[in-house]
Amino acid sequence: MNCLIVEDDPMVCQINEEFAKKIEGIHSVKTANSINQAMLLLKKENFDIILLDVYFPKGTGIDLLKWVRSEEKKVDIIMITADRSVEMVQKTFRYGVIDYLIKPFTFTRFAEAINKALKKSNALTDTVDMDQSMIDSYLSEKSKYGVSRPSNEKGLSPQTYDKVREGMEQFSGAFTSDELAEKIGLSRITVRRYLENMCDTGELSSELVYGKIGRPQKHYFKG
User: Fold this and answer.
1) Listing from the earlier edge strand, what are the strands of the sheet with 49-52?
2) CB under 8 Å to 142, separation ≥6 — which residues?
3) 2-124 has which fold?
4) Using one digit for the tens of pLDDT, what is the confidence trace for 178-209?
5) Pick the CATH number of 152-222 from 3.40.50.1820, 3.40.50.720, 3.20.20.70, 1.10.10.10
6) At what angle do helices 35-44 and 61-70 cross, to 10 degrees?
7) What digits encode the pLDDT tens for the residues 141-173?
8) Across the chain, how many H-helices and E-strands are there?
9) Based on the number of CB atoms within 10 Å of its own CB, is 194 exposed (0-12), middle (13-18) or buried (19 or more)?
């Protein structure tokens, strides 16, 4: 896949570029520091995915979104912005973005967004017609965050997995299985199983924290 990063902050642009180049399936990465420059590149080249900021000295990411849709460009768009407003989130999704990342974000969350686009592309490659079951299967393979949910082979429920993920979003830093269990109303043992599975897949990391008294506690964190 060919990726275009549209970002006017040089440091953020560099970080996004380095992140994108780490992901298998991304073949080339180009950057644009303005809406006009992005339009020029999109007229000359084909891109599969755009990583788009909202605010620029001249114009906004919404302007580019509208232009891309009016030109019927076949490209997926992921917003990467510090704008947390409900209005902006709703507006961008109405224009068909596939994900919305709020700065600052972890590489794990960034990779999830990119992989969502990759899976979407792969699922539709070489498919001429889709029936309802194919569409349902395609949609159900992704969780709210655009990554595959665990299969029942490990005895893990997709619904519970999503509930654990939603609870994790309430923590800005590291957390314990006990803290998360209390937040979402599940048993500590159940929550620990899901967290350990996330660590096995690389979605989470963990470390033992030794206090002055008692056993060390395992802390989980994203990224």
Assistant:
1) 28-32, 2-6, 49-52, 76-81, 99-102
2) 116, 119, 148, 149
3) Rossmann fold (3.40.50)
4) 999 999 998 888 898 889 888 877 788 888 88
5) 1.10.10.10
6) 30
7) 444 444 444 444 456 777 788 889 889 989 988
8) 9, 7
9) buried
